[in-house]
């Protein structure tokens, strides 16, 4: 196991009816900007529930900013950042999924990057994003009300921002972006379309794989925890498809997705993230849901990098898929585990090839070009996945 420091200050408030805790969690005299997406927060009544909780005590001043897109747009977020400055906002409350929470983290980080006229500087904010926002030393406080279990953004300090004009979808991360708290009320996920529920299960699954399917460093805690999270998703994904009203299943999926990317299973171990970086370019170029880009790319990453990932692929086959038949050779065991993974994604109605989303190998060159433009040229746990490797991965995914 490698040396590490693990720090995660996020208070998680889990369970049905917990939105009312906002009256204790948000400072009583706060000037709050509630941020949300394209309409689900209003339609589901969650936004009203949040506003009622904020007005139940104290003398908070509350503003709203709606319209944060799935794959949140840079330009939209700068408008929210201007609102932060215009109204002296000192607390951001994100109500939504990864897009709203990520977008609000970015707003919290860039609001102080203003021009003389007080508006947030587009150039400074873009420079910040292209350097991962790591050099920003102040941020507006942020809390979250999660409405879709998927990304783990509710309990981490990272995010991803889309800048369509520049055909860029870039990750960022800064400890100042940890939410002070996140409320996880599983009943809020009942209004999700099946597509989004399945996306969430797949995104969480691939988060675990990015931090697990690398090479062994004898990290028994992280490996056992990761394998358990994978097995829970393999069980609960089909279960929630069959019985969407089952609250126990909803609770376990919600908590698994949070645990999949709150840093715990990734601490002290090598991490890959090739699947995600290639996936981001697919979303940016073809507006494919984030999770669906991952289910297309992961199986090909597993096949193309089979040699360097061999030991963990065999461990994955044994401990997650129970492939313990010793008289089979390693290649057969590994291929069976990869096929099982593809079948799991298919069972959830998710694509496993570019063809499944009506793309063919003509899509590959533009993706390679974008990877190069975004300096995604040394990906993976060994930093060796260059553009040729990414091209071979995509060739396999056609
Ligand atoms: O926009 P609204 O109207 O709210 O609708 C949303 C959106 O259309 C809808 N939705 C959310 N909660 C709902 C609901 N509909 C009905 N009932 C509810 N309770 O679902 C759609 C998708 O929402 P979104 O927030 O985009 O989904 P998700 O949580 O999967 O977030 C995806 C974004 O997170 C980023 C992705 O790149 C993508 O931009 N990621 C963030 C990460 C992080 N911070 O650690 C890591 C991930 O790998 C990922 O990259
Ligand atoms: Zn993801």
From TrEMBL:
<dbReference type="InterPro" id="IPR018211">
    <property type="entry name" value="ADH_Fe_CS"/>
</dbReference>
<protein>
    <submittedName>
        <fullName>NADH-dependent alcohol dehydrogenase</fullName>
    </submittedName>
</protein>
<feature type="domain" description="Alcohol dehydrogenase iron-type/glycerol dehydrogenase GldA">
    <location>
        <begin position="9"/>
        <end position="186"/>
    </location>
</feature>
<dbReference type="Pfam" id="PF00465">
    <property type="entry name" value="Fe-ADH"/>
</dbReference>
<feature type="domain" description="Fe-containing alcohol dehydrogenase-like C-terminal">
    <location>
        <begin position="201"/>
        <end position="367"/>
    </location>
</feature>
<dbReference type="Pfam" id="PF25137">
    <property type="entry name" value="ADH_Fe_C"/>
</dbReference>
<dbReference type="InterPro" id="IPR044731">
    <property type="entry name" value="BDH-like"/>
</dbReference>
<dbReference type="InterPro" id="IPR056798">
    <property type="entry name" value="ADH_Fe_C"/>
</dbReference>
<dbReference type="InterPro" id="IPR001670">
    <property type="entry name" value="ADH_Fe/GldA"/>
</dbReference>
<keyword id="KW-0560">Oxidoreductase</keyword>
